[in-house]
Amino acid sequence: MTVREYFQDIFDTLTSITTGLKITLKYFFQKTVTVQYPEQRLSFAPRYRGIHEFEADKCIACDMCAKACPVDCIYIDKTAPRKIDKKTGKAAGGELLRYAIDYSKCLFCALCTEPCPTDCIHMGKLHDLSSFSREDVVVEFAELAKKGLKTPVPLWMERNAGNIGWVKEELERVKAGVLPPLGGDIPQIK
Ligand code: SF4
Ligand code: SF4
């Protein structure tokens, strides 16, 4: 190694350390962008697409949503054809044996919601589907409907409902089978 190369090496090392330190210091003094979820919550765009909300009593099991799904992650089974009863506005006929979505595949593209003739499948506002097994991310919506639910209850929700106001409200909404304000924004909570 020549003397020139020796000093060039020292210069390069110092330049590299200085550049790294400058980047670190720049971010060190910037405002924090992460929040302590679920105590704090960021707002979502009005058209945010989260875990589906499904109205089983309006589903005629026509398979239009499943056919539109680009990754084939909707599974539907029925005993016989179903159609909307004009008097009640609810689906009647065969039994909806299964309506499931595999969230390990779902792209949250919303293509399933567009062809639905009865407007019974919606993109929701919840985004958390943490679970202990891969099987648990296949949500059986027809089974949830038997419990009066339109969407699954995330694991963290019941644990935090006792001490976080907005989580309590959201849990009450999900348990009551009420759709979220699907067109509106979700307010930020700091
Ligand atoms: S959001 Fe897209 S990927 Fe997910 S179930 Fe609907 S169509 Fe399929
Ligand atoms: S398109 Fe609508 S009515 Fe038809 S199976 Fe899907 S959710 Fe049910």
Textual characterization of the structure:
It is a single chain. By secondary structure, the chain is of the alpha+beta class. Among the domains are: 1-30; 52-120 and 129-151, Alpha-Beta Plaits. It is 28% helix and 16% strand. The chain has 5 helices and 7 strands. It has helices spanning 3-28, 64-68, 141-146, 155-160, 165-175, and strands spanning 50-54, 74-78, 82-84, 91-93, 96-102, 121-124, 138-140. It has a 3-stranded antiparallel sheet with strand order 2-5-7. Strands 1-6 form a two-stranded antiparallel sheet. The longest helix has 26 residues, at 3-28. The chain is elongated, with a radius of gyration of 25 Å. The termini are far apart. The mean pLDDT is 92. Bound molecules: iron/sulfur cluster (SF4) (2 copies). One iron/sulfur cluster binds at residues 59-65, 76, 115-118, 120-121.
Biggest β-sheet strands, sense, barrel: 3 strands, antiparallel
First and last CA, distance: 58 Å
Structural class: alpha+beta
Strand fraction equals: 15-25%
**So how many helices?**
5
Spans of at least 5 consecutive residues whose pLDDT stays below 50 are none
The gyration radius over C-alpha positions equals: 25 Å
SSE map:
Layout: H1 3-28, E1 50-54, H2 64-68, E2 74-78, E3 82-84, E4 91-93, E5 96-102, E6 121-124, E7 138-140, H3 141-146, H4 155-160, H5 165-175
Antiparallel strand pairs: 1-6, 2-5, 3-4, 5-7
Keywords, separated by commas or semicolons:
190 residues; alpha+beta; Alpha-Beta Plaits; two-stranded antiparallel ribbon; 5 helices; elongated; binds iron/sulfur cluster
